[in-house]
Predict the structure.
Amino acid sequence: MSRHQEQTGSRAPSGGATRDEDLTGHLPVLASIWAQDQRGVLGTGTGMLWNVPADFAHFRRETRGCPVIMGRASWEALGGALPERTNIVITTRHDYVAEGAHVVTSLEESVDLGMRVAEETGAPTVWITGGARVYSDAMDLVQELVVTYLDLDAVAARGRSGRVVHAPQIDPLVWRPDPELTDADWRPVSGDARWRVTTWIRR
Ligand SMILES: NC(=O)c1ccc[n+]([C@@H]2O[C@H](COP(=O)([O-])OP(=O)(O)OC[C@H]3O[C@@H](n4cnc5c(N)ncnc54)[C@H](OP(=O)(O)O)[C@@H]3O)[C@@H](O)[C@H]2O)c1
């Protein structure tokens, strides 16, 4: 098993292949990871709209041991630091306190810090973990998008109205699925929905 797999678990959504990396003098990858419903909805702005435990386990496996970068709203939605990861929170509030996390005031600063930590610790990836604003702002910076598609219309399922936030559009002229790290089929229902993962890489 590679160090990458030990740290982040298997990256083999479909065909059983895993991404093996030579971590000698490695350069960490900057990547985004999110889950969206059929309409591209990510959440309410202050919380989640579904419970899909197997996808959460996937998120945990992927990000474990790596720096994670999130906006202040997502940090508050989490309610505490993600364990076994360097948590980095972005806010404009210079006096903001986030227990168990580093607080920075720009996306660039968060990426610089994440990269430094990953280089020091040998983490293969610096993850952008939300929310909508940060995913959108990071689209030009990231090398990879690990997207979980949920077979669920979360707003209709909850019969609720009100604010929702959406995932960024993925331009097929810019991004293509990595066949080694993309599910060919749906994974079984977990909690509220069946789900599948597509890993998008740049063309
Ligand atoms: N489905 C998923 O995979 C997933 C993953 C993560 C989050 N979410 C959901 O996403 C929602 C939150 O998303 P969101 O777009 O509302 O908020 P967000 O992106 O989490 O946070 C936005 C806040 O982060 C700070 N921020 C972001 N970029 C900044 C920059 N360049 N410079 C300085 N500060 C910056 C600002 O905080 P200040 O206002 O403090 O300045 C801004 O108000 C929640 O519902 C959460 O549950 C879903």
